[in-house]
Amino acid sequence: MKVDIEMGTAGRAAAMLDLEELLATRLLVQGNSGSGKSHLLRRLLEQSAPWVQQIVIDPEGDFVTLADKFGHVVVDARRTEAELAGIAARIRQHRVSAILNLEGLDVDQQMRGAATFLNALFDADREFWYPVLVVVDEAQLFAPAVGGEVADDARKASLGAMTNLMCRGRKRGLAGVIATQRLAKLAKNVAAEASNFLMGRTFLDIDMARAADLLGMDRRQAEMFRDLARGNFVALGPALSRRPLPIAIGAVETSARSVSPKLTPLPDTVDDVENLILTPSPEEMRQPVRRHRPPAPAATADIMAQLARSTPEQEPTPETVLQEVDEAEREATITSIVREMIDERDVAFQTDSVLFQDFLVRCRIRRLQGGAVGLPEFRRRLAIAKARVDDDLAAGEPWQRALGLSASLPDDLQSVFLIVAKAAIAGENCPSDMALARAYGTHSSRRARRLLAYFEEQDVAVVRSDFQGRRIVALPDLGCETAPGDPDAQDGPHTEAAE
User: What sections of the sequence does the record tag as coiled-coil (predicted)?
Assistant: First the structure.
């Protein structure tokens, strides 16, 4: 279905945007502060609200006013990662337009919150891949071209989520619309995936040159970007125009909470202005002023005696009040928590970061003794637990060798290898494609077969078939192989539909 929405005017004609084409080709908006980017995004959101689900990543809380007129759900980002991921999954499931309000968080927290939310949208089940317009304001914050004064893990997570949105989101129904103040500050691999552009006023030479390159204009024509008025942009792209087209963005129905500063008259001069400023009000007088009492001066004799000593007196070491940690009990608690997690239905398709946050919460509830478990150790424990090995097999020497072999593989492949190794050591049927895919965190049976091919390339496994087409996986380093198993079997309580 072709839907054209009116973005404004191009000369005397209406400037139209093909919404269906936009969903397939994405949009990049660029302009300095005050050029009208937020006004443009608001116009786009208002005009397309009746036609498509919308999700807004809002770092300043400017777009929350859309909720009053268009029914968007405002999600306060001051939550745990597990809560944000669950909300994002339900938003895709129920096709509700929403605004992720990141206002009030520092930059690190904004990047982590946006990354968790976008990754959960990206990881939604295939049955919920409906078209969604994902608008990210101030995109240079979430996909910076270079590292800044933020934690490296937060920057990598946010940049990865933005790259997934712009590079791989189309097949999942996610259409990225990103707005930035400066193209030079935006990661190139994120900006390069947009096919539609709306370039506003900018003054720096490097930004004007990049804008001209993206629009296919001569470098000498880049000077025009300095002369653009507020709310005027140059459009190009299959959803807008095949040639660079100057347009003026139309009016909007809602307004942002933050507006441009306006000059207002100063108040009338008060006669005794000095006393007004320097004299506290009665309310301030009633508030007690807390002053730290200075320490009493030391006696001169004490100071001389202290200097005369050749070595300072050793203060007595206080007796420890910490309770000794029972390592056996601690290990049993961690093992119990991980096993509880893998028994839940949706754990196979959640990201490691979300599962790790859930794990930490469970540890606090159980009052786990000792230091916290780190993410690498948690991933290792989760991979081992997915194999569901009983105590007798776990105590055997073949399983210990299998654990050693798995440690040399990438973290995300260890659970798949250990499931195959467990079947080989116990003489069980070879796991099906869906069982291996579930261990990897995907619904794709083809990917499971590619994982076995990767094991063959690394010389840790040999895959063959018997005369009935059943699969057998041999592990030469362990000296054992699985029993023949049907690769297309739909077994297991958590099996999902194959891709």
Answer: none
